[in-house]
Structure formats: structure tokens, C-alpha cells
Protein 1
Amino acid sequence: MSIINRDDILETIEMIRSENLDIRTITMGISLFDCVSDDENKLCENIYNKITTSAKDLVKVGSEIEKEYGVPIVNKRVSVTPISLIGGGLDKNGFVHIAKTLDKAAKAIGVDFIGGYTALVHKGATKSDINLIESIPEALSSTELVCSSVNVATTKAGINMDMVDLMGKIIKETAYMTKDSNSIGCAKLVVFANSPEDNPFMAGAYHGVGEPDITINVGVSGPGVVHSAIKRAGNCDFSHLAEIVKKTAFKITRVGQLVASEAARRLGVPFGIVDLSLAPTPKVGDSVAHILEEMGLEMCGAHGTTAALALLNDAVKKGGVMASGHVGGLSGAFIPVSEDRGMINACYHGALTLEKLEAMTAVCSVGLDMIAIPFDTSSSVISGIIADEISIGVINNKTTAVRLIPVYGKKVGDTVDFGGLLGYAPIIKVNNLSPDRFIKRGGRIPAPIHSLKN
């Protein structure tokens, strides 16, 4: 039996009260394979009933745990089986019907988002995949809570450049169709390499084919806690600094493990994983960029930023795996520009560029995330940005992703406000030299040689 002493309790209280420690999300994963029907209306009815029955107590249980343990739980979410896998012979309109059904179910149970409007096309695409992908702009413009993702590459399969080309066009179309709300649809759409099946974070969450019928995954967050720990440590060397981050990540993850286990027990479903990612918010004291600056950088984006982020990401993972037997999802440090006050400030000052952000993604958890760009950026340039970022994931055998927002009516130097956790951001400069001929070659960039491990 573990012994929790008074100092541990007081330290956790201080983390919550003063350092923005929270559980970013409790996400229930739900399989929809038993909902399949060749009748579109019956399929949607089955989906609605499965979600509203399985997750009917999710918000209530989350709120109860929040009150009993005093740990803020920011979001309650649902992820479902990739919809292209259960859509069968549906056309684009049929998939939009499913998206609206997901939205209706999410609202009925009171969750913040529902993920899984997803296609897995890393090696090729079925007619069902294409229909879903082409329906994404309408689906995201006609719903509020639905999130979408497309996996276009894996280390084992290589990069499906036909889908990379298509996703550049889909992002532009989604931006236009949600132009009256700052192109917000693109904030709910992510393009992946090596997407995990148990990720609790939106917009990329879906319930993978290897998952149980229903499961609970939890995403923790604590940039403020790590920042405070580094600040208290003062001018120590890197070995000591890594130990501090590792021990802090251990404590953060233990809180997540407690909440995840308790939620699973009360809901009567299996506990899946704890994702120990440091997920920032626009709030003061909740920034990954400020952690890097506390390490000694004048501003995030200065030379040395990638090395600092590498240390942080590695130490967070090492601490987390000691705290939970089931760490999964993405797990590490997120760098979503619009959601991180320090990143926003660095972009305003020109210290962070798209190229520097891309370099940083080689060592962090995800990729080019929540970056606002001019609307007149061409679809082929967007596809080129996706191809570059996805190749980092494929070559390094890690998850990378792209969530770009070409904001309608905005140009470099303007600011866009998405509200809430999505934050605000400057529109940053994009290199508009055309990769069009390169992208149009199509086909598949072969898997790297190390994919042959077996």
C-alpha cells in the first residue's frame, strides 16, 4: 500500500491552485463496429444510440471526481471508430449525415468535442475513404463539436502523396466554408503521420481498431508546474535540470493515473492510457514556451530552442512511464502556437517562424499545430508543408501532425482570435515558392529502410 504524506498532499494542492495543474481531458473511446448497417438512417440511429448509451454518465462522473479530489478536469470528450471504416457504401451526403449525428449525440451527453470523423489512408484509399475526406469541409462547417483527422503516412507504409495533395485542397475548402467564424473548421482538422489509436486529445482523437469496445483515456497537463519547478531549481546543470523535470512529470502523471482509474471504475469500463503531454493554454503561467525560456533562452525560437525542447520532451516521458503502467497517446510536450502565450509572443516578435517550428517538431510530441497562415496561401504550398512535416514523422518513427488554419480575409501581421482553449495568434509568413510540380507527381514516397525491422 502506498503512503501519501502531508507534504505530497500540500504540494499537489499548490500545483492545482497556483501552477495550473489540471486534467485536460477524460476521453471515452467507443467502438461503432456493431452499429454497421446498409441502411443509412439505421446506421445513424445505431451510432446515436451507442454513443448516448455508453457515455451517458461521462460528464457526470467527471464532474463528481473533479469535486471530490479537487482536480480541475477541463474537458470531457468522446472518440469513436474511424467513420470511414463503418460508412461502407455511403456517398458524401451520407457521411455528412453521420457527422451531424455525431454532433447531435455529443450535445445530448454534454461533452466538449467528439473525434473520429477520420480516414486512414497511409497506403491507399478506398472509395469510402475518399467520400469521407471530400465531405470534411461540409461536415465541419455544419457541426460544432465534431473533430476530423486523416492519417496520410506511417513509417511502415511511407507517405501517400495523393492524399497529401488532396488534404491541401480540403484544408483550403474547409477554411472557406467556415470563413464567417475565422475559418475555425481547420482548427478541428488534423493531418497525421503514425497517428496513435488511443490519443485522448482533439482534434486527432479516434478509437482505433485494436481497442476494446469502450475505454477511458486521460490526458494530463502541467506546463505551469514544470515551469515553477525549473524556476525554483535556479542555475543548475542539465543533468540536474532533467532530473527535476522527470520528477515533476512523475507527480503530474500520478494525478492523471488516479483520475483515469477512478473514472474507469465508476463508469464500469476498462482504463486505457494516460497521455502525459504538456498541453499549454493561453492563460498566464501555462506555457511550454515559457518553460524553454526559464531554461535560459532569451525567447522561444532563439538558437538552442530545439535542444531545450528535446530535453523537456525526453524527461517528461521518462518521468511519466515511472508513474503509470499504461502511458500512451502522444505524451510529451505540445507546441500549438495559438494555445500557448509564450509561442504567440515569440511569433509576434519574429523569433518563431514556420521553419523554426518545423525544426522543433523533430523532437516534440506532435507537429505544426494551430498555426494561422494567410488565406491566399495556395493548396499546393499547404500540401508541401504537410509533406515536409509528415516526412519528419516517417523518418523518425514518431507521430507528427499538421493543423494549419488559412484564415479567410487575413494577411501576415493580422491577428485572429479563436476563443477559449484555442486561443489567438498572429498570421505568420509562409514561403510561397511553389512545390506544385513536386506534389503533383503523386503516388507513394516509399517507406524508409528502417521500416524493414521485424
Protein 2
Amino acid sequence: MLSSKAARKYDYDLIIVGTGPAGLGAAFHLSASLPSLSILMIDRERYCSGGLLNDCKQNYTYPIGFNDGIWTREEAERLLQIVEQHLQPVIKPKQNISIYQNRARRLGVSLLDVRQAHVGTDRSKHLIHKLRSELEQRGVRFMLEQEVTDIINCTDGVKVVVASGKTLNCSKVITAPGRKGFEFLQKVMERMGIAFIDNEVDIGIRIETRQENYQIVADYYDPKFMFPDKVRTFCTNSGHARVVLEQYQGFSLVNGHSLSEKNAGNGLVNFALLKTIGLKNPVRSGQQMAVFLARLANEIGGGRPIMQRVGDFRMGKRSNSENFNEDLFSFEPTCRVTAGDLGLAVPAKIMRHIWNALKKLDNIVPGVLHPSTIMYYPEIKMYANKPAFIDTYFRVSENVYMIGDGAGTSRGITGAWASGIRAAEGILLNR
């Protein structure tokens, strides 16, 4: 199917929907293995996007970023070596890890020892430009600020429909729209009759506090704690760190960024505490439940997420603007959302498990539950639309592959890139 003859029959041999790490991983592998292949990458954003654009934190240790049931340790470690060759990470040093691991173990908590790298929000565009330039030199084309609205299977190929009304014909398609593309993937799978599992989602809060209250970051940049009740820490930022808003259709979520080490620090740290929810029948959609919770929080917050001081939460009262003063609460929130009461927005069971995890964490890293610590809500990761793959290369039909966080094949930059390589290997095998 993929040949110079095919290039005359189709507009492109391969179209990749999404220019994040999953799509880039596929493009790099295919352009190196089959230089004659005509490849187009499409994205609705101005830049190659995904986690590479925001903070660009990378983990190079299994199982971080790799979903159970899809990856083996051997397969992940094989592909992580290739990912590392492309991203050329500078691995962050760690020290005193055994001290924290011993404290955690006594509380039934585990602290994973992960090889990590961090680029920083201020430098991520430089990395993206370098990666894109290398692909363009290989002949890969980019179509940015163009949203794909549909993917149509045909008897002899695939049609990709763009919002402008233009339809592109190709031999094969890789869809990798990322977490924000979960609704798009659902619509495509429903229209194509592809079965998928949509029962798992991560719901949680983002913590912001002074670095002196979470001193582990001086020893371990992004500590990966795994608590009981399927709660975990995620995406720790320190140095020059800030909480940011992510805009979705009709609501906002919170997330965390940090700048590279060349910038002066602001003395703050932020990280997420996420609880994985696995819903059972008769619940129809974990993703839609997550959207409902996000919209509820934004409604309570007057169109914005909610923040609450730990000191107020402990006393069972809401936070308000007067609680953010220059006395005990001596740092300004980096993301000024609505001061309020998380108890009105977070489901009780989820909040109970997260609070229990926070109390354990305060025994492992004393100080994190200082009264000034801010809890932001909601932080939700909607990346669990897991299609019924017809082979191990993430193929969902004869000529369509679905990869990355949005398709539930990964959870992060390196896992997404690896899933792109794996799909590319399948295309090479089946061409």
C-alpha cells in the first residue's frame, strides 16, 4: 500500500492527526525507515503541541507513562532507548531517596525511583522547533491551525476531513490528538463502529505551597508517590513554578508548569494528587462524568476553578479573599481562581481518599499540610478512551491507528512517543 505508486493515487501515503509526542514518534520512525513515504501532520494548534509544549517533563523508567495490559517492561524499555535518542534528555540527579522510601514504606506508600528530565515551559518551543525542522528536512509536511473534523474509512484508503471543508485522501491514518482530543476520538470511534472502553479517568487536585514545605524537591525533581486507594502524585514543578489554566469547551481545568533552571526561582512548588476512578456498568462514560464534575466546579466557582487553603479546609470553612492575606498565608496564589469550598464540588469519596493521601505525605515530607498550602480543583486527566485494537500495533481498522494519551495507550511524553514508534512498526509490517 505504501509506495511511490500509492503517492500518485493518494494525496499522502500517511496522515498523522496530532503533532504531539505520539505523532512525532511515528513520524520520526517512519521517515527514517521509509524515506520515500509522503507524510502529512495536521494539528489545530499553532505549534506542535501536547506535553512537549507545556513544561516538557520526561520520565524514562517503566511503568511511568505506560498503561497496564498494553505494555510489557521489555517492550517499554526497548522503545524508551529510541525515545531517548531523539529527545536527548539531561537526566536530573537524585539523592537521599532511601530516606523517603523508608518513611513511605512504613505507611503503606511506595516512592518510585524514576529517571527524569525537564526542559521547562520557556525552552520547550526551542526543542519543538528543532524536532519539526529535522522532520521537514526529511520531507514530512505540516498543516497547523487546521482542525480535523472526521476520518472516513474507504475500501481502498482513508479520507481525512478538515474544518475548512477540504478532504484529503491517504493510504493510512494515525490519530494522536492527545488528552484534549478525547471527544474527537469518541465521535470517530462511534461513527466507525469501533468498540472502546471509556470507564477510567483521573480526578484530583493540584497542591501549591512554599518549597520549604515540600523539601523533597531538592533531592528528587518529580517524586512519584503511589498511595492506597489508587491515589498518586503527578507532575511536580519547582524552581520557577506556577499553576495554570487549561481551557476546554465550556470549562477550565488546572495544571502545573515550571520554567527551566536558568530562571530565578519563585520559591514555590506545585504538584497534582490524582485518584484513578474505574467505573462499572451501568455508567455509560467515565469521560462524560469527568466533564460533568469539571463543569460543576466551574459553575460553583463563577466560571473558574476553585482554590482553598489547607487551614480553612481543616476547620471546615470555605476560603475567601480575606484568607489570602499577608500574615500566616504569606504567598500569593500563582493562579488567581475563585476562593471557595472544595467540599461543595469534589465527590466525598474522592476527596476522602485524596485527603488521606495528603496526611500520609505530610508524615513522609513534613510541612506539606502547612495551613497556607493551597488546594486547586479540578485537575482531571481525560485520556482513557481505549479502543478495541485489532493488533498489538494499536490498529483499530485496516488502515487506521489510534495512539497517545487520548487513546489510552500512554500517560505522558515518553510513553506517547513510544506508542508512536509501535504504530509505525505496525505500518512497516503491514505495508
Protein 3
Amino acid sequence: MRYIVSGATGFIGRALCRELLASGNDVAAVVRPRSERLDNLRAEEERLQKGSGRLRIIELPLEEIGKLREIDGVRADVFFHLAWNGAAGGEREDFDAQYVNIAYTAEAIRAAKACGCRRFIGAGSQAEYGVIRKKAHEDRTLPHPFMMYGAAKLAAYEMGRTLAAQLGMTFIWPRIYSVYGAGENAGTLVSYVVDSLLRSETPQLSSCENMWNFLYIDDCAKMLHELGESERAQSGIYHVASEDTRVLAEFVKEIRDIVAPEEQLAFGAKESDPARTFWLDPDTEKIRGVAGECKWTFRRGIQEKLNDYSMYHNKRPEG
């Protein structure tokens, strides 16, 4: 099959490109010009194309995503739109930064149609739900986002699915939960805890009494691939999450037991606002019906992250 992937230099985008190419698919990877991560994707290009799949890198700013239809030879069956401005840090609360993403999503849908795609797959977020202290169900749980990021994602879903229906395209909206693994960004909880422990420092944490769900990056890429390829995947929302939901403190303790069993954890050292503390307890029956069960346990994923750390740093850092 032929795929277009926007946001191809991101953590999930790179993994998805690897997954699609390894399965023999052709991928048009849309990336921001002069992206700091572009060199990383190009460095992987030769290795990725050793299989039967072909990779084409297209440099295009997100605000010009609609120009894909003007580029010769860009044809595909499925469009993965992972690119999003202001996905981290303070920009998550910036109205203007988030608002423009809705229009960019609409332009990506129109470009997908012009490029021959029959299926459009966005990148939703559990942030669309806000704080829900119970199991979340795709078709029954009402979203109440508390940050601009979640509100913009929800608006992009509602308007995107309507536009896609007008254009006669299948519209799939994976609500992606907490993805971790080798190559993830430095600011995540998993990276912070691992790095602190490797430096013999005590991680400073909230009480971590909320429920959480971690998904390893390779399982995430596999789920997205199946949503793009499987005939069982229909228009609608899918929770992209693992079957492993626990109190967050249990995950943190497992990281400590793997990385540095002798180190302490400072639960409660940081204050948290209950009204802005996510409670991640997704129902995963729907995605299991399309992609099956996860292959990676949390323990195995943390061990792989440590292997990745060792590969780039050659040794365990000292305090």
C-alpha cells in the first residue's frame, strides 16, 4: 500500500514510518523544512529502504500541507496526519497556537482526497477527555478538555470527521495515550525518572495516585498501521493504549526496580492540582479487535529504553 505520513520526524511518526516500510509499503514522509530531526530521518533512509518499501521525504511547512496535491507523483491510499503545532510545553495552553491546527487538519483532509486517499487517520489525544476518574469508552464517555490542546484536538476531530464524510473518505481518530520507549522526548515522566535514577538522583514526584496507561512505541506504531490497513477498522474513535492500566506509582516503582533498585523515590515532593491531573483508564476492546494484543510488557519496554540509552552514551552515567 501507499501511505502519506505528516509529522514523520516526530517520536511516533518515525516509528510509524519504520513500521510501514518494514512491511513493504511505500511512504511519503512529510516533514518541516530544516527540521532538527530531519537529519535523523535521512540517516535512517538507506537502512529503511533495504526492504521492499520505498521512502520519499517531502519538505513542507505544516501551514502549506494543502500543497501536497500540487506535487508530482504524490499518490496514496491512506493519509496519517500526525503533525501538530504546540504539542508540548506552554504552547499547549496557547489559543492561537492550537487554533490554527484545526484549519491545518482540514487542509490535510482535502489534500488526502486530492492525492487519492480513501482513508484519513488523525492523531487524537486522551487530553480530549480532560479529567475523568473512571474508565473511558470511545462511544460513551463525554469529553471535557481543560487545556487548549485537548480542546483543539476535539474540535479537529468533530470538524474533520464531518469534512471527510462530505468528501466520501473513511475518517479514523486514534486517541493516543501515554507512549514511551527508545527515542522518546527528554521531558516525559519515564525519561525523567530513568535519567534521575541513572544519575543516582532521587526523582521528585507528585503522589502518583492517579491511574495511568503506558504504551510502548512499537506497539503504538503497529496499532496505527492496522488502523490504516485493516478492513476491520471503520470510521470513528479508537483508544491507542495498552491493556496495562495501573496506579501511576506502581509504574514508577517498576522503573526504579529495573534501573536502580537501591535508589529512593520522593512521592509527594511536588504538588498537583486534582482538576488538572489526568486519570488514564481507557477501554481497549475496540482497538484489540483491530490490532490484537500488545507485544511489549512495560518491563521489557523500560529495558529496551535502557539499551538505547547505553548505545548512545556507551556507559551508565555517574552521579
Protein 4
Amino acid sequence: MLTDREVLSTINMLRNEHLDVRTVTLGISLFDCASHDFDVFSYKVRAKIAKYAARLVETCNEVGARYGIPVVNKRISISPMGVVGAGFNADQMVRACQMLDEAAKEAGVDFLGGFGALVEKGMTPGDRALIESLPEALATTDRICSSINVASSKAGINMDAVALMGRQILNVAEATRDRDGIGCAKLVVFANIPQDVPFMAGAYLGIGEPDVVINVGVSGPGVVKKAIDRARETRGSLTLGDVAEVIKSTAYKVTRVGELIGGEVADRLGLPFGVADLSLAPTPAVGDSVGEIFQSCGLSSIGAPGSTAVLAMLNDAVKKGGVFASSHVGGLSGAFIPVSEDSSIEAAANTGALTLEKLEAMTSVCSVGLDMIAIPGDTPAATISGLIADEMAIGMINTKTTAVRVIPVPGKGVGATAVFGGLLGQAEIRPVRPGDASGFISLGGRIPAPIHSLKN
């Protein structure tokens, strides 16, 4: 239970420090909707989404108003479409994506995730059809997000899928050329993707999940920064151990807020509550930045020497506080470092303090990976595949989730600005280190899983 002092500090977080429930995500299994007849499949999917999502937005708003805690985004995640639509061709996958987009709009949700595939060990015809459909599917829809898992610590890295995704990322960017390649902001390539992520673009409902479930994502990077600043003002000086304790206790209170909201939404809808994902997901708003936490920890900016160590401490303390607050912490639960979505990270990148190489090093200890990074539109597909392969290797060897969401901006080069709007923000286009990876990528096959995968 929270003490009176903790209740008051939580109220202050809500009023002044950008604490919110970033997303309530309704997970819906579509396996019982599978059919070789596309029209039958479409009817079943739309009926099931309408049945369970009809009151989602209304209920989130009611619960948020009751507690004075805003629920910023209401979202849906579904079973991986590459599995559900295993018999569909690429054209039918496009139609399925458009149908899901219409269903999401009718439900009033912000995004629907799960138009994706799990191909870490190989691709079925359905998986390949979905990946082939991505340029048209993401260009002709507004609210659909796609995640493709190409690696795991158990299976290794599917380099054929990595090569294909390098090409398809360029194709998706070209298909949305008129919007600075924004389709790629809705497409992410994963290693070790969790089955219960409520955050986009990686959200999907895993095969072992319930038929319908409520997952919640809570975010409060501004809260963590202010807590560290207050502790320094109050105590005069802090050790790094003290900072870790401040982060941990703050994460505890934030997670309790998320579980409170998620549990009540689930109860009102008559659905099971799944997990609370405590991920420090920033927005472009000043005061809602993960990057600013690094300054509170004594660095000139994120990207300075010591940044990887600070991020490791931050990620670990967030997880420890969250686990103590809830028996059902899941998803990613840690710190995100998306460049375009965080004003402080974007500023550090603009000054050269934060490079692509430093970002890659930091992904070894963060919750996701290379996230929301704009790169030149003429970047070769093999170079993008090389970036993906490097990031997948970090995830595979360290038995952690890693991901790549890069945006090649058609017609623009280094130093130009890509504008995505809303939570996606804007980004100055970053240089990519020169060098040719085409010979390596063309080898194909699978990079074997590490020896520590043999744990049974």
C-alpha cells in the first residue's frame, strides 16, 4: 500500500511531471477467425474486433477521468497475421491490412499492431506474402503497425529474412515518399520479441496468450528526472547507488498507477488483465524526455562517455521497481531511446554528441534498440540489412530484446529534416558509416544460435 506521502507525490507526478498511462492495449486472438475464404475471414475478424473493442475507448476515458490519470492511447494488438493468414497471397494480405485499418478506425483506437510475422528460423509462404505486401499495405493504411521477428537466442538469426527486410524497408519508404517515408515508422524488425508488448510498433498478441486480454503501458521519464533532481536538492549530494534507489522507488509508484488503471479497465470490460509494461517511452514534449535523465545523472548530454553505464543503471532500476510493484510486469519494461520521439536525444544527435555507433552500443543495455532514426533515402538495402544484423546479434547473444526502426527518407540526405508529426516527432537525417555489406548479406542462410541457447 502507498503511504500518504507517496500518494501526494504521485498526484504531483500527474499534475506537473508528465505521468500518464501511455497506452491501454486490447489483445485479441484471431486464430478462431482463420479461413481459406477471405470474405469469411474478414467478416469474422471485424465482428470479433467490434465485439470486444466497442467500449474500449469509452471505458479508458471513464477510468482515466475517475482517477485523474490520462490514458493517452487506446490500441489493439492481434495474433501475428503471417500465421493467421497463412494461406493468403500478397494481394490478400494488403486487403487484410486495409480491413484491419477500417476496424481500428471504427473502434476509435489510435493504432492496431500485429500485422507481422515470426521468421527467426524460416519463412512460410504466408510469412513471405505478408512481408511482400508491406509497401502497399502500410502506404494505404493509417493505423496499422507491423513487426517482423527475424532472430532469437534459441534459433539464431535468419539472414535471408534480414536481407529481405533491408529491401522492404526501402520499398516501404518509397511507397510513402510524399510523407517522408513515414511507413517505416510503423515497421520494426525484432530479435526476441515479447508476446505481450502493448507499445507500438512492436505490439502483437503471442500464440500462448489469452483469447482476449488487457495490457497496459505506463511511461514517466519526466517523473524519473524530477525525482532525481528533487533528491539532489534535498540531500545535497547523491551516489550512483542513491540514484538507482530513487529510480527504483519512482518506478514502483508509476507501475502501481498502471496496474490500477489497467485492472479497472479489464474489470469493467469483463476481461482478464495481462501485464503492466513500465517502459520509459518519451514524447517530443519538453519535460517528457529520457535523454534529460542522463543530464540529471551528471552527464553533459546523452551520448557523452558514461552514457551506456547510466542507461544500464536506469534500465535495471526501472525493472526492479516495476517487479516489486506488480506480479505481472511484462512487455519490454525499461528505457526507450527513440531519436525522433525525444527532444533531448534528438538535440544530442543534432550536435554530434550522439552518433549511430554510440546508439548501437547503448542498445546492448536498453529495452529496444535503434529506434526512430532517419537515414538518407539512398542508403543501400545491404547497409540497412547490415544494421539489422548487428542489432539482432546484440539481442541474440545477450538474450534480450533488440529492434531496428530506421527510416530511409526518400529524396533527402544528411542534415535535412524529416517531419512525422504527433508522437513520432521529427528527425534530422543521420549519416550512416560508409562501407559495403553486400557480400556478407548475400551469403544468406542462418547465423547459428549461441551455445548458451542449449539450456534444456
